[in-house]
Design goal:
Length: about 800
């Protein structure tokens, strides 16, 4: 059933509602609201699934439980590889759920009084858990969007003839959205464990975008005079529940307030209002009367984008001049994704024509007597908007148009000056100066709304551009994709803001494919880092095991030297390759213990018999453990000769009471050395002195000094990095390169940085990265979107003169 038919049923008994707005009008508005909501929700849930995929990969890399790792990776495979059918089913269920509620259809509540108790069965716990999580998500969203939802209830209720519509009957309620998504997971026949894992991640994901969607729908309904005037204050007041309670207790004191950003979000400012203050103010001009084909006045059309209470930009008409094809009759229509544009700024037809021709690459042309002698598509980082300001065409602009040109010019000044982008990417973005200016001229909300399609696209291009380096050349696939998108904007953009959404989706699909291809390279590099980390950990553990034995039991120098130089390698191999729980590690440790025990004094007959019985196995294990070591034959022979001497001393009853029997061997060898020297036999003396050293008790090695760790904000920044963060590295010769944090070792926390293809891997510890930060050899790339940073820079440049910017 379509929306019009549904409204015919719902509105039939409500003649008063029908008199206020015809069924056909209401059906169209409801259909538009549904399409806006569905489009925006598909984008929001798509981005949410991207974050869920990253989170699941991170959880898998950090988990030591094989079952959990498998579940996380399988779920991520569904989120990434099965996205298309999942989102298609979500859209289908969402549209169906909205239409059913508009038509007044709902599933009947079960009558438990008629249930046959003998047929009751236990419910699967996972299914029960899914229901609990879904209900929890709905409650969280309803609490987060309380104010926007109350206003939307009144607007939708006004359309369907139910002025007192409650949330549980609202066709666009959070329950409809969340249930549609959960139902889509079921209908895709996913395993219960995977469905439950996705829903758990959704339960922890930020879902504030739903509130923004409701707010934009409310603005859309206000502009169409659907929402009663009494509901508007609720859209603006975004205070805490305590603030709302105070407003209820003291209605006389309640005043409309500027909307507050969510906690942790950067506030948006009405830059145009700030700029008008700088220029001395732009006097409001009388509004032309609304007529067929025209939208309401700018204040009503732009909605809250430029502030409430009369602070909206004036709709400017040039006296004595009819509107031309270059000047929009009113605000542009909402996009399919749900973006609601504000009132247009452009009012001079010649400027509109000139921008269109500049975007096409024309130069040396005349517009209404104004000669344009520069190109709108520059080569390199040239600000063509400064050329426009100085041209006869620019000087004919109205004050508001001139302000807009200046602001966009300042944005590109910032882009050209930032260190966070390669120059080649800046040159590509430079070609978008005229289209971005056109977008700002056609939609006065450009400066106030971070969600403006052209802003979001430029931000996405800049963010993607971090993955390109001049060494890759202009034939690199990413560069060619960015260049292709720029060309599409230059060729196709007129007044269709949806083009920016289409191109952003195209870029996102390209980057997703590249990222999927890069995963194999990242996995290979991660395996290498993981192996190296295991080796480093194994080396520390193996050395610690050897020194613990040498410190706890007296051993001759020759044996301590063997353990430190050769057997520590056998321990390290067993630990790194098979782990501490393996038989190989246990056997390597047993051999270590047996070697140390074999040179201790044997005080009982049983000990002597045990040594004799153990020797064949001990020698065999020693040979196997040192087979891959670089142990020279003469050195091996000398060691074995010393070991025979040590064992012979260990079993002598006369030495049973001494701490280390080989000390007696050393003393005897010292006497032999002295006698040989006296007899002039230097060879015999040297051999005896060598035996003295070998049989003397070894000293434990001193504890290694721990490297100094500088606890400062550089280390704090390094330790708090998240996967996907981009870093600008500077080499010794001053060359710059951008790399992103692709993986963090779960063993030692080693960072793996790669380029966008997952190649040119660079690994280091957080301490090493902090040291690079201190020496200005590494810098964090700003995470805030490029245009947002540029506007913040504009605000800062006016901060001294205008310390209190107008909040949007």
């Amino acid at each position: 059933m379509n929306v019009a038919a549904a409204l015919t049923i719902v509105n039939a008994p409500t003649t008063d509602a029908a008199s206020r707005r015809t069924t056909r009008e209401a059906a169209k508005i409801l259909g538009d609201c549904r399409d806006i909501a569905v489009g925006r929700l598909l984008l929001a849930f798509g981005e949410m699934l991207d974050r869920v995929g990253d989170t699941l990969m991170d959880r898998a890399s950090r988990s030591d439980v094989r079952e959990d790792q498998t579940l996380y990776l399988d779920t991520r495979g569904v989120v990434v590889g099965g996205r298309a059918p999942m989102m298609a089913e979500f859209e289908k269920r969402l549209r169906s759920g909205i239409d059913d509620r508009i038509a007044g259809r709902s599933e009947p509540k079960p009558d438990f009084s008629k249930v046959d108790a003998t047929k009751l069965t236990l419910v699967d716990t996972t299914a029960m858990d899914e229901s609990v999580v879904t209900g929890n998500i709905i409650r969280i969203v309803e609490n987060q969007v309380h104010d926007e939802l109350q206003v939307l209830n009144r607007g939708i209720g006004h359309l369907i003839g139910s002025p007192d519509l409650e949330t549980d009957r609202n066709p666009l309620a959070p329950a409809v959205i969340v249930d549609a998504f959960a139902d889509a997971l079921k209908r895709n026949k996913l395993e219960q464990k995977i469905r439950f894992t996705i829903l758990k991640e959704l339960n922890q994901a930020p879902l504030g975008e739903i509130g923004a969607i409701y707010a934009d729908l409310n603005r859309h309904l206000i502009n169409l005079h659907v929402v009663p005037a009494g509901a508007r204050a609720s859209i603006i007041n975004r205070g805490t529940p305590a603030d709302r309670a105070r407003g209820v207790r003291s209605p006389a004191a309640a005043q409309p307030q500027q909307s507050q950003p969510p906690p942790g979000a950067a506030p948006e400012f009405d830059i145009m209002a700030l700029f008008r203050r700088m220029a001395g103010g732009a006097p409001a001009q009388p509004q032309p009367p609304a007529h067929a084909g025209h939208a309401p006045s700018a204040a009503g059309a732009a909605g809250p984008a430029f502030g409430e209470g009369g602070d909206a930009l004036p709709q400017i008409d040039v006296p004595g001049q009819a509107r031309s094809v270059w000047i929009p009759a009113g605000p542009l229509p909402p996009t399919a994704a749900g973006y609601v544009p504000g009132a247009p700024i452009i009012a001079t037809p010649e400027l509109g024509e000139g921008l269109a021709r500049l975007q096409r690459g024309e130069m040396d042309f005349d517009v209404g007597g104004a000669l344009v002698q520069f190109s709108g598509i520059p080569e390199g980082k040239h600000n063509v908007l400064r050329d426009l300001q100085e041209s006869p065409l620019g000087k004919r602009s109205t004050q508001l148009e001139s302000m807009t040109i200046e602001l966009v010019a300042m944005l590109f000044d910032f882009i050209f000056d930032t260190r966070d982008l390669p120059d080649g990417i800046k040159a590509l973005l430079a070609r978008l100066q005229i289209p971005v200016l056109k977008a700002a001229m056609l939609d006065g909300a450009f400066f106030a709304k971070k969600s403006h399609p052209s802003r979001v696209l430029v931000n996405a291009l800049a963010d993607a551009g971090l993955g390109w380096a001049p060494s890759m050349g202009t034939t690199d696939p990413l560069y060619k994709k960015l260049e292709q998108i720029v060309h599409r904007v230059l060729n196709d953009f007129s007044d269709n803001l949806e083009l920016f959404d289409e191109l952003r989706a195209d870029l996102a699909a390209f980057l997703a494919a590249e990222e999927a291809a890069a995963e194999a390279n990242i996995s290979t590099s991660a395996d290498e880092v993981n192996l190296r980390d295991r080796r480093q950990i194994a080396a520390v553990v193996a050395k610690s095991e050897v020194e613990r034995r040498v410190g706890a039991h007296p051993v001759p120098h020759f044996l301590a030297d063997f353990l430190r130089r050769y057997w520590v390698g056998a321990l390290e191999d067993a630990h790194a390759q098979q782990g501490e729980d393996s038989d190989a590690w246990g056997e390597a440790q047993s051999t270590l213990d047996d070697l140390v025990w074999s040179v201790q004094p044997k005080r009982t007959t049983e000990d002597r018999k045990h040594l004799v019985a153990m020797l064949p196995s001990l020698l065999k294990r020693m040979d196997a453990g040192t087979r891959s070591r670089d142990w020279q034959p003469e050195e091996r022979e000398r060691f074995m000769s010393n070991l025979v001497e040590a064992h012979a001393a260990a079993v002598k009853p006369s030495l049973a009471s001494v701490e280390l029997p080989t000390v007696a061997v050393a003393e005897q060898a010292r006497v032999v050395a002295q006698q040989a020297k006296a007899a002039g036999d230097e060879v015999a003396a040297a051999k005896a002195e060598e035996l003295v050293v070998a049989m003397t008790a070894a000293e434990p090695e001193p504890e290694p000094e721990e490297p100094e760790v500088i606890e400062d904000h550089y280390l704090e920044i390094a330790q708090s990095l998240e996967r996907g963060t981009w870093i600008e590295f500077e080499s010794d010769d001053g060359q710059l390169a951008f790399a992103k944090l692709a993986w963090v070792s779960p063993l030692r926390g080693t960072y793996l940085f790669t380029n966008r293809q997952g190649q040119k891997a660079l690994s280091m510890s957080a301490e090493d990265l902090a040291e690079r930060f201190r020496n200005d050899l590494a810098r964090l790339v700003e995470a805030e979107p490029l245009i947002d940073r540029a506007l913040s820079s504009v605000i800062a440049s006016f901060g001294d003169k205008f310390p209190e910017p107008v909040a949007a």
